[in-house]
Amino acid sequence: MTTNTYTAADRARLMRALYFIDPASLSYEEWLEIGMILKGCGIVMSVWDTWSQRDPDRYDATVIREKWEGFSDTCKDKVGPGTLIMLAKVRGWTDDSDIALMVPAAKESQAPSAQPSLLLNLPHRDVPVPPHLSPADQSRAFLRAVRKPGEYITVVTEAKYDEKSGKWKPCGKGTYYTFDEAMDHAEDILASGNPDAGIWVRVNPMTLGGASNEDVTDYRYVLVECDDLPIDEQLRLIADLNLPCPAIIFSGGKSVHAIVRIDAKDAEEYKERVRRLYDVCKANGLSVDESCKNAGRLTRLPGATRADEVQTLIATDFGLPTWSAWTAFVERHKRGLYIHDMADYTGAHTPEKRPALIDGLLREGGKMIITGPPKSHKSMEAIHLALALATGDSWYGHRCKRTRVLYVNTELDECEFTNRVEEVRRAMHLDLSQYRGRAKFISTAGATLGKGLITISSLCEWMMDTVARGEYGVIIIDPIYKLEEGDEDTATVNAFLLELDRLRAQLGCSIIYTHHTAKGGDAYKTVYEEGRGSGNWGGDADAVISISELTVNEQKNADAWDAMRELGIANPATAAYRIRFGARSFAEPPDINVFKTYPLFTVDARGLLLPLGMRGSAQARGGTTTANHYAEVRALKNEATTRAIEACKAAGKPTTRSNVYEFLPAACAQFGIETPQEGTFKDWTSRTTGCCLYRTDPTQDNVLRLCETDTHGRVVYENDSPKFLSAPGEAA
């Protein structure tokens, strides 16, 4: 079989490899190459279109059709199926069919995911401060930094407005100046541009009249641009990476342009060095625009006006002086131990804290553990949190930053898991479009990696080889016990946590994981001590969420019991929980009491579960002192209500709830209890929460009336109405 003749079986294999690749993980150029490969191999456009829809943020049916029609018959000579196969293989695809013979050995630098050797332990460096120069002097300073006397400078001032993108784009080859001409006429060059569009200049020196990559006379520089981070973050990363920059420019838009010294002897070495530079940048958080890699690329000319901004010279001769000095710096700072000076990180140099990922709980890049007993909704709440993060929704009052989520389901059958996701989606009232492409999952139950079952070590290795740095903001592992490699002693747990640290650092993400609690009650444990096994689970995490079971009794906790019955809970005895929070970087949030409804908890907004103790506490065990205390409180509330009704009647007012409430403060003071808010008093005299023996009678202008009680002291209802004892308005 030749490389340009493909059978139906070859095309089928290519399509299997294609669907192993997430289009959202590719650069624009890689995505375009996939289209060329498919067309060159005789595969129809609809395959490319359908596959591309998995990246909804960039999908455009019109662009796909235009690009497809623009691919020539010779596109298969420019890029072959080996590129597609390689992209699939570095993501874990393991097809061993004959088509693999067309695949060149994948170079480490070609892998889209960050390689371990490229992660650097970087000291922080001061960011550059723009010099105080006139616009024309900014242009001159820039040109002196990037050109030599005798070289041509290509300036592009013509621009066309692109309606589709809403941007001005350069037109034509531009105007060619000698070095001396550009120095002498800087003001005229700046005045010749379109102030809405700005002015461009070639990154590298070109032949006179040349405008393509083949016209480059010296492969000296490459443009590093990143427009998906804030400007100050771009500058911080450029500074920390110590890139050898003869010039750094603010584009006048969303990005900083770093002109980085490559000093390649030819086009082949240029490609290799650019690839290495870009890989190091991406591995350490600077997500570069791959379209800037061409040697004939344009950058922005400092001093020119662009809409309401000025293309500004930020620095010249910044960072290391040469490519070789920079590569030596990279080798020296490969991730490991590095001794820092505290003075470099304090005072005016104190770095800002990472932004919150979950307000009040977790910062970006942190670790969070959710603990709870079996069947306590841990997985449901982990799915709830995953969808909240993927959509930017709230999770129990904590606003989540919208990000991409990878959910690792280690326990549930895949069908069961996806059905749970659907049930949670419906409960959250989400549309599929709100999280399509932003919430992914893998299921490890019964799966293998290599020759063995999946453990935390093999899973982390697979992720670091498959997932690109920054591809996901959060990885959720539910639950972690399925990945453990030994007993849950301190040494094993520490090894497990170190694997998570390595994964988190390499992928630049936060990690959230669920774990079972130990047997026995949680009442005498702090929120950090509840994870089964070593106490290091809670101590290591930046945020801890504990789901603890409460003990509820039908007789002692009648109001809570009734409320759960009204929520449709069949067995209230096992449906009351308290969610406790621990946060390293925030003030500790208050506990939340919840009812176990399906698929998600229902928050106890009325405070019915506040008196309940956690499983194992003296209160939960029903100690006589505790039980008597709550019975006495209920009796005092009822006596105060009776006294207020009597006072209301004596004043000649109808004993409606609002009238009675006017006399309640004095009555509560007589019995030594706190006066409730009016809404709480309504709860006292309502069916689901009422601790008093009075209810409103809708047939008698809603006056409060004394009710019949059962053997447990609860108000008796008949046909959903209370059974009244007294005449309207009377207090028995």
Describe this structure in words.
The protein is an alpha+beta fold and 732 residues long. It has four domains: 105 residues, no CATH class; 198 residues, Alpha-Beta Plaits; 226 residues, Rossmann fold (3-Layer(aba) Sandwich), CATH 3.40.50; 99 residues. The protein is built from 22 helices and 31 strands. It has a nine-stranded mixed β-sheet with strand order 19-18-22-23-15-24-25-26-27. Strands 4-1-5-9 form a four-stranded antiparallel β-sheet. Strand 26 and strand 27 form a beta hairpin. Helix 2 runs antiparallel to helix 3 and helix 19 runs antiparallel to helix 21. The longest helix is centred in the C-terminal third of the chain and has 27 residues. The chain starts with 7 loop residues before the first helix and ends in a 10-residue tail after the last strand.
